[in-house]
Design a protein that fits this description.
This protein has 81 residues and is an alpha+beta fold. 31% of the residues lie in helices and 21% in strands.
């Protein structure tokens, strides 16, 4: 298998048309795995680029949630998404 070049700039997920699911799990060998399911984009990227875009979206969503949690009182339930 030959390496597939990925653009050096920030992955742009603005063409996402369907939000899928991102799971973080430990496989049977104890290795961390990030699994991406069912994301769709209006400009069909390669499988690898679709995964990168989906993980960038998840990263930004989690980052926003962490920032909210840092400034909200602990008894306030917050949700970003």
């Amino acid at each position: 298998m030959h390496p597939v070049p990925v653009p050096a700039d920030e992955p742009d997920y603005s063409s996402m048309t369907k939000i899928g699911r991102v799971e973080i799990e430990i496989d049977h060998k104890g290795m961390l795995a990030i699994v991406v399911y069912d994301f769709e984009f209006s400009d069909p990227p390669t499988c690898r680029l679709a995964h990168i875009r989906a993980m960038a979206w998840a990263r930004d969503l989690l980052d926003a949630q962490i920032r909210v949690a840092k400034v909200c009182p602990s008894d306030v339930v917050s949700c970003v998404g």
